[in-house]
Amino acid sequence: MDATARLNFNQQYYELMYSEWLRYRSRYRRFAVPIAIALTATGIGLAIWAACLPCAIAVVVVAAADLLETITYRHRWMKKARCSTRSDGGELRFTDSEIIVNTDNSHGTIRYEGFQSAAATPGGVFLIPQKGVSIFVPLATIEPQDVVESLVALLLTRINGLR
Question: Which CATH architecture has domain 3-9+87-160?
Fold first, then answer.
């Protein structure tokens, strides 16, 4: 197996990564908006029907702050990710036993044993290391395209099968 993924760390990459992470990998963040809306509605309901108006106002203020934080989180996360990336992109070459990483400022090899797990999503694959930040590989960046399914199967088998 020999396949290459050419990554470009731009706005589209981080939007896809965040949306795939939010939908398929996050435990609690995906429920943040419904919880914030429910908390805000509860505070408004308490303000209307409760005898303790200061308590209800406090709940509304806290709920509104939580809702604002929840709504702006995606933008803040992507801005932080873009600013902390020191490279414009890179190339990942997948072999049967390792991943060879090349960027404009580094070169390295990661054996599959160095990953804790792998998670496939409809838009890409998350490679979760034992320590550090996950690597997201969008399926559209993998060349040749006819090996995408077999590469994903190989990654899931080799990495998740090692546990």
Answer: Roll (2.30)
pTM of the complete model: 0.77
Q: How far apart are the C-alpha atoms of 38 and 59, rounded to whole Å? A: 11
Q: How many Å apart are CA 4 and CA 142, to the nearest integer?
A: 6
**Exposure on the CB side of residue 86, measured as CA atoms within 13 A:** 4
Which secondary structure element, helix H or strand E, spans residue 119, and what is its range? Answer: strand 115-120
DSSP class of residue 22? H
Q: How far is it, in rounded angstroms, from Cα 29 to Cα 24?
A: 11
**Strand-pair partners of 125:** 120, 137
| pLDDT tens profile 16-61 | 888 898 888 887 888 888 888 888 888 788 777 777 778 777 877 8
Structural domain boundaries in the chain:
3-9+87-160, 15-84
Query: Residue 39: enclosing H or E segment and its boundaries?
Result: helix 32-49
Nearest CA to 87 out of 8, 12, 140, 13 is that of 8
